[in-house]
Amino acid sequence: MRRSVEGYILLESLVALSVLGFVVALFTVAISQQQRLIQDTKDLTLAHAKANEIMETLKGVPFDGLKSYSLSQSINLPEGREEVEVTDFQTSDLKRILVTVSWRGSGGQIRSVSLSTLRSNR
After folding, report:
1. Which pLDDT does position 73 carry in this prediction?
2. 97, 89 Cβ separation under 8 angstroms
3. Taking the CB of the first residue and of the last residue of the chain, which one, N or C, has fewer CB atoms within 10 A?
4. What is the DSSP code string of 7-65?
5. Which stretches of the chain drop beneath a pLDDT of 50?
6. Nearest-CA neighbor of 46 among 121, 102, 107?
7. Cα angle: 75, vertex 63, 51; to 5 degrees
8. Distances in Å between the alpha carbon of 93 and those of 17, 66, 87, 89, 90?
């Protein structure tokens, strides 16, 4: 009888360790996903701030001096790129300004943030 009790305790211990291992694995996956989400959120916030900063800088540029341009690695994002597109909008006294900040996200996909506004010559 003693022998079967010892075997029963060993089986309980193995089941408990298996359940514990499964729970630890779940927590590990959850923590890594949380860290990736935190990094993606930081990158998105930085991209929004950079796009807004560019847009605010363009407020001080004279209307005739507004030009399209593109810069690579100008921001602190993986493979970061900023683009400013200036086009005439309906009349020559109105321009559409589109600021796009793009970068490579944690999953390897290209992410981007765009801000757009209209500016008058008046």
Report:
1. 65
2. no
3. N
4. HHHHHHHHHHHHHHHHHHHHHHHHHHHHHHHHHHHHHHHHHHHHHHHHHHHHHTS-GGG
5. 1
6. 102
7. 20
8. 73, 12, 11, 8, 8
Torsions phi, psi of 121, nearest 5?
-85, -5
The first and second tokens of residue 11, run together, are 């089986």
- Cβ atoms of 44 and 51 within 8 Å: the answer is no
CA dist 68 and 85 (Å) reads 4
* DSSP character string of 94-115: EEEEEEEEEEE-TTS-EEEEEE
Q: Which amino acid is at 17?
A: L
Tell me if residue 74 falls in helix, strand or coil: coil
Q: What confidence score (pLDDT) does residue 50 get?
A: 92
So what's the pLDDT on residue 9? 84
At 7 the pLDDT is 63
Mean pLDDT score of the chain: 87
pLDDT at res. 49: 93
Res 1: pLDDT = 44
